Amino acid sequence: MSEIFGIPVAVILGQLMLGLVNGSFYAMLSLGLAVIFGLMGIVNFAHGAFYALGAFAALIGLQQFGINYWWALLLAPIAVGVVGIVVERLLLRRLYRVDPLYGLLLTFGLALVIEGTLHQFFGASGRSYPVPPALQGVFNLGFMILPIYRAWVIAVSIVVCFATWFVIERTRLGGTLRAATENAPLLQAFGVNVPLLVVATYGGGVALAALAGVLSAPVILVTSSMGSSLVIVVFAVVVIGGMGSILGAVISGLALGLIEGLTKVVYPEASNIVVFVIMAIVLIVRPAGLFGRE
Amino acid sequence: MRTEAALYGLVMAFALCVPLLGIYPVFMMQLLCFAMFACAYNLLLGFSGMLSFGHAAFFGSSAYATAWLATAHGWGPAPAILAGMAVAALLGLVVGSLAIRRRGIYFAMITLALAQLVYFVCLEAPFTGGENGLQSVPRGRLLGLLPLNSDVIMYYVVLAAFIGVYLFIRRVIHSPFGQVLKAIRENEARALSLGYAIDRYKLLAFVLSATIAGLAGSLKALVLGFATLSDVLQGNSGEVILMTLLGGTGTFFGPVVGAAIVVTLQQYLSDVAGGWVSVIIGAVFIACVIAFRRGIVGELAALRARRRAR
Q: What number is the ipTM of this complex?
């Protein structure tokens, strides 16, 4: 059992693991998108830009202020979340009464502004972020080598996704949130501060994207455009999963990461497009998405 | 009506005199190509209410097809452009029939994702020149007669094509077909209950829009002499949305105004502002969505209507 179809098992497992790491990022990003969309009816095109902003916040923190990785994991999402809150207060809340397509257009413009500014200050070439000392090295599992940091990314993202699911589906706060998704004016009439709920949700969703950015900083090159192509894949993931379900977003994110990893082994040329092809197939077979209700 | 006719006359006179006025013809041709692209886009967003985020795929694939046929196979400009349009129409048929299965936000995300797929194909296909794209595309002779190497002749050909497209779109919108499209935009359920096969109408509008976008892309490839990845990039899809939105979605002349402003801005800002161009474009986007959603022409029309009501 050292080869399958002439491909060494270690190579396959390595790619599957890389796929799972990517899938973790897809899951965290599509989760934030789903939560924001559920409550606000806005597709946050700037999600990829906030993800990049998170990675840059960690990078700047390390280089300018000596903030280490562990603090960055906490502080970068908070900082980016605050940016998100400002954006919601200043811009997005003016759009709740108009067609949701305007929200998509506005956040598209926002993504251009954020990514353009990052590009101006940091240039086009990628920067690398060191893996924190405690997470360096590898586990030797006998049948494959598992870098500790990659295992860490997968573990953190699963914990974060589960925690988000738990908060939304099993707590009183989550209940209020779901009620606001169903009927915001009624909830407001019951005395719940819905605008506060909305701003907190947007801030939280954006912070989640930033957390994914910090997590990804040591495994990829940090560039101003790192989020712009990712967000399109995440949109496809969301179309495949159906935006209504949180668990659907997480499962499809992880699964598509795995499939992408597998494609890299079998037919590398198609690895960039496999997610989009799957999206097309899902649209033909089940237009509402795998977990969607329509 | 009379002011509208006068305005059209003025614009027409200006367009005809461009080569005499000493304005760089290549710049004007580029402007016309993007104006045509924006008009095609407006046919979809403005008159049918579908927000496509992937129109660069049609513009770009047609540009690539025309450039490839003209360079590698020595096709003349007319057949190369027609073939490019056919490619765009076919792609529009595929993308459109997938995307119209969903509405609104999902429609936008699906077109975006499928356009990204087209981008990767253009990046990796053996005949597209990868990162370099296809360079030095010959303009050739139109129908074996008109030498398009002269910028002035090429300019009038592009102008004629643009006017043809503009009149065609007006005709389409004022036809019964266009009226049904508007009805679908306003209230899809009602149009359906009146017995219209709305999916067929939407798909036809999508294919029409994609084909005209393809014509714009083919012409652009011949005018500038290259087809590159920036033609199929999502940034190009974003720009055409901005042109339409800025000029006035759902007005006839709005996209032309929007295209003129955006292309001019890009031309001059790249000297002054350097890398800040995309930031400025993003800021204009935000300003449009927040402050004037009707766009320049739409706001002017609304202003006139208000004056008249007084």
A: 0.86
